[in-house]
Every structure is written in structure tokens, then in C-alpha cells.
Amino acid sequence: MRIVVALGGNALLRRGERPDATIQLEHVRAAADALAALAKDHELLICHGNGPQVGLLALESEADRSLTRAYPLDALVAQTQGMIGYWLGQSLRNARVAAPVISVVTQVLVSADDPAFAAPTKFVGAGYDHATATELARTHGWSIAADGSSTRRVVPSPEPHGVVEIDTILTLLRAGTLVICGGGGGAPVVSENGQLRGVEAVVDKDLTASWLAVAASADRLLVLTDVAAVQRDYGTPEATPLAHTTLSELAGMRFPAGSMGPKIEACRRFVEATGGVAGVGGLADAAAIVAEIAGTTIRR
Amino acid sequence: MRIVVALGGNALLRRGERPDATIQLEHVRAAADALAALAKDHELLICHGNGPQVGLLALESEADRSLTRAYPLDALVAQTQGMIGYWLGQSLRNARVAAPVISVVTQVLVSADDPAFAAPTKFVGAGYDHATATELARTHGWSIAADGSSTRRVVPSPEPHGVVEIDTILTLLRAGTLVICGGGGGAPVVSENGQLRGVEAVVDKDLTASWLAVAASADRLLVLTDVAAVQRDYGTPEATPLAHTTLSELAGMRFPAGSMGPKIEACRRFVEATGGVAGVGGLADAAAIVAEIAGTTIRR
Predict the structure, then answer these.
(1) Which CA distances in Å does A169 have to A42, A110, A133?
(2) Given CB atoms, is B148 within the 8 Å cutoff of chain A?
(3) Annotated domain spans of chain B
């Protein structure tokens, strides 16, 4: 099978962990081991997140007094693609993946008039207590929102309408290459008069992965995160994990924006467009989710 | 012809300029216009520098108090590959290059016992007056060296012995793709017991470009920089530009380490290994250097 994997940025750095390179590289190695097991039997395209990483680089750039202004988010997303793509590519090779592995820098097309630019929802950077986050928001001009028990910066997350490099990505897949692309959802660009221009946003990597899965005629979309399964009645005492579900069953449920919401929406789009099967669950369970003995499986 | 272009990091940010994203993107656009003219008639592989950029990111990471220690140079080189690869890929598309354009994250193999680790020569970051540079060296544990009239940080620059992703790069070239790779010389890695591991260094991108030009059986290696030609008796009142020269003529001359030295050595290796022609000169003259009416042409 051809499987598109959406790998959570939180899989590379857990809540509350110090964003050191060594800590992230350790998580990347664990992720690579789980993905290498999948790569034995399947063609993989991997799309990783970058929420914690792009938030860190944005803070560093804002603190850099040698700059007139901080680097825009499109350039910072591209930086995270380089770094995480490097770590992931290296770790997959070290995990003895047989296919050639390549990380490609990816641009994702968005609309300049996407309503998301006026209503930021995508979490980036670390979690803070409310008072610290409010102070940071004032200093840096951030929007902030609650993420569980902490407060984080939120940035606009417009819809992905296409991937600029899709033809080359398909060429690589046809050549039997394991492709890492669409990292951090892709560097967001608008196209005006045939000219691409970066914009200040971070596209949801699950939605970009879904677009890529449709474009690549994938058999499966696998959304790997830090929870074991989708929960019915999430956040209530009645919460129960869903093993197998359908689009019509999901249509009646609500999920938090900025976390499980986009994951379910990514699966919905893929399943609806292709009739393929989507899976959501924990990174270590990747092979078990494909075998439908772990996580949540979503069908039409 | 198949041409491998080594594009100086200084072409993206000139000495003394503020390292703003907008300033660099403007230079990248000019570079893309010059390269797009070449791409009309030739297959291109582009290898860009990252000296100013990786130095900036290293300073930002060192100043980041949320980290136990600054990110290692291999990860920072990969970040610059993402950002510059993104800018360059976008600008080449905007300049109407007909071929598909892709930037790939690249690892370069070096030896753990390369003597360069004990004798740093590669300039990174901004230029400072001597007193400021000495103070920064003390604070950050840098090595420093004079670069013209300013003083800059220097880091180890081991020999490139291979490019991990070479097979996929060749696949892409065969498919007619314009490939941006080996950025910043590649993220430096050593291979131990079949496991790749990043090291604290920045490989010279001209030497990596030379390795790539040999591996890709290129017809030309074009080293583009901020000087119009190689100079005989550089730095003396007798300095004169060389239009056409040979390996034996060059063998009797000396060039500064960390700037023209590696460029000449990159050309020498390519010309010696392949019998091809190497050119050195200004970015705006790219097409004229290929036509041998500008810059310096080097033959066996």
C-alpha cells in the first residue's frame, strides 16, 4: 500500500519538555523506528508537524536585535522543514529503511483572503501560564489561546489548496523513494499574477497531508499523534475511545479546533475524496493502526 | 550542458548589510534571474552557501535561554537549507524556469578525524571590529580570524567525502528537474558502524559542489561569488584578473583560505577528475562566464 503519514510536531517534542536538539533527536529516532517498520511493507510519504519548533524559532528571531524585524513565518517554517527533515531523513536511514529517503522543501498554496488570517487558531511554541502568555502577547503582538491547561501563541492557519512541488513529489514516489515533504504543513504562499509570495501563517500539517494523500492516490492516511485514539465525548466523564467509525458517525461529533479537529477533518477529506481508509492514533502503534488493531479507523 | 553552480552565501547577503529576510530575498531574486537565464539552455544543479545565515542562527540559538545548549551546527546548516532552498526555489519559479524546481535537504559525509576539527577556517556570521570579535569569542567560546578588514567567527570545515542523498539527486536530474542541494555545503555527518551522526562543522559549499559536479558528470562547474574574476597576485598592487588559466598555472599561485582558496581547489578537483571546464566570477555574469567572455575559465 501507499501510505501518507502525518506525524505530529508534539511527537518530536512533548509538552513541557525543554526544546533541546538532543531531546528532539531522541524522539525523532523513536519515530523513525516506528515508521521504518511500516516502510518494510509499504510506500511512505511523511508529512511532519512543527508547532513547537516554529514557535521557538519565531521567538529567537523576534529577540534578535541585529534584525529590523523578525523573519516571517513562511521562512521560519522552511527552516523547520530543513532541520526536522534532516533529522528524520537521517534517522530513517539509520533505522535501515531500504528505500532511498529524501526530504524536500515544500510550499503550500493558500488564499490571501482566507478568513483564517483574521482568526488565528494554530498553536505554535511552548505552553505558558495565563499571566506569562498575556504578557508575551502584549510584548510581541501575539494572539493567544488556551491549549488544555496552558496558554499558547496562535497564528493564522489558512486552508491548503495545493502543493507547489507536487509533480516532483510524485516523480520521487514513482521512483520508489520515501519522501518527507509538506513539513510544518508547507511554507505558506499565495500566487498573484503567477508569482509566489510567502505569507505569515502556518498551515495545518494534517490538512496538507490529506491533500497530498489525495494527490498521490494513497491507500491510507495515517495521522499519528500523542493520543491513542479518537475519543467520543472528548473532555467529558463519558469519553470513550472509538476503534472503528464512519464519516456519518463523525459528522455528529465535535472536536477541539487546533488539535483533534483538523485531524478528523483531514481524515474526512481523504476518505470522502478517495474511498480510502484513514487511521488516527499513537506513533508507536503505527503498524497496529494500519492492521486496524489499534487507534481509530475511519471509513466512508 | 549540465552545469553545477556554486552560489556564494555572500551573494544573498553582502558585507555589512543587515541580515533581514527582505534584504536577502531581494538578492535571491536577482540571483534567480541570473540563474534562470542559464536554465533556458542548460541543466542546472545549484549548491548555495550559508556563511552569514548559519552564523546568525547560531547566535540566536546561543542566546536562547530556553535551551540547555545551542543547537549544533549540523542542525543549523539544515535550517539554512530549508530557508534558502525555499527562497531560491520560489524565486526560480517566479523567474519562469521551465523545469520543475526542487530543494532537497542534503547530508555530506566527513571524517571524524579530519584535521580541520582542530583548525577552524570557515567564516560564519557577521564581520566585527577586532575588539568586539574578541569579546564575542570569549563569551561564546568561538575561534575567530581576520576576513579582510573585519574579524569573524571561524568553524571547522572538514573535507566532503560524499553526499548521502546522491542517488536521489541523480534520479531528479535524469527526470529533468532543476535541483537545489548541498546547501551550506550540506549538513555534515560522520558514518560510524553504518549510523549517520551530525557533527559540529560547516563544509565548504564550493568543495561540496565540486564533489556533486564530478558525481553528476557535469560539463561545467560554475563558482559564482562577489568578485568578477580570479586575481593573479591577489592583495598586492600587481593584482590582475585572470581570464583563462590552467591547473598548472594555478598550481604556482596562493589564495586566501576560507574565501578564494576553496573556490580554486573546488575547480581544480573538478577539472582534474573530469577534464571539464570550471568558471569563477560574478553572479550577474553567470551566462557570460559559461560563454567564456567574463570571469575566469579554468582548463586542464
Answers:
(1) 17, 19, 39
(2) no
(3) 2-51+77-111+160-192+201-299
- Say what the ipTM of the complex is: 0.96
Q: How many CA atoms lie within 13 A of B74 on its CB side?
A: 23
Residues of B in contact with A101 (CB under 8 A): 165
Instruction: List the single residue in A56, A63, A82 with the smallest CB-CB distance to B105.
Output: A82
The reply to whether residue B172 touches residue A171, judged by beta carbons under 8 angstroms, is yes
Residues of A serving a catalytic function are: 9-10, 122, 205, 263
| Alpha-carbon gap: B105 to the closest alpha carbon of chain A (Å) | 5
The band of A103, judged by pLDDT with boundaries at 50, 70 and 90, is very high
On whether the CB atoms of residues B171 and B219 are closer than 8 A, the answer is: no
Distance from CA of A106 to the nearest CA of B (A): 7
B10 CA: distance to closest CA in chain A (Å): 17
> What CA–CA distance (Å, rounded) separates B190 from B204?
16
Q: What is the pLDDT of residues A37-92, one digit of tens each?
A: 999 999 999 999 999 999 999 999 999 999 999 999 999 999 999 999 999 999 99
Residue A215: exposed, middle, or buried by beta-carbon count in 10 A (0-12, 13-18, 19+)? middle
Known catalytic residue at B9? yes
Instruction: With 0.90 as the threshold, say if the pTM is over it.
Output: yes
Please write down the HEC assignment for all residues of chain A.
Answer: CEEEEEECHHHCCCCCCCCCHHHHHHHHHHHHHHHHHHHCCCEEEEEECCHHHHHHHHHHHHHCCCCCCCCCHHHHHHHHHHHHHHHHHHHHHHCCCCCCEEEECCEEECCCCCHHHHCCCEEEEEEECHHHHHHHHHHHCCEEEEECCEEEEEECCCCCCEECCHHHHHHHHHCCCEEECCHHHCEEEEEECCEEEECCCCCCHHHHHHHHHHHCCCCEEEEEECCCCCEECCCCCCCEECCEEEHHHHHCCCCCCCCHHHHHHHHHHHHHHHCCEEEEEEHHHHHHHHCCCCCEEEEC
Task: Select from A68, A89, A165 the Cβ nearest to the Cβ of B18.
Answer: A68
Confidence of residue B186 (pLDDT cuts 50, 70, 90): very high
B122 is catalytic: yes
Q: What is the CATH topology of the domain spanning B2-51+77-111+160-192+201-299?
A: Carbamate kinase (3.40.1160)
Q: How high is the pLDDT of residue B9?
A: 76
B60 vs A64, A72, A195: nearest CB? A64
**How sure is the predictor about A269, in pLDDT bands with cuts at 50, 70 and 90?**
very high
B297 pLDDT tier (thresholds 50, 70, 90): very high
Q: What is the pLDDT of residues A141-164, one digit of tens each?
A: 899 999 888 999 999 999 999 999
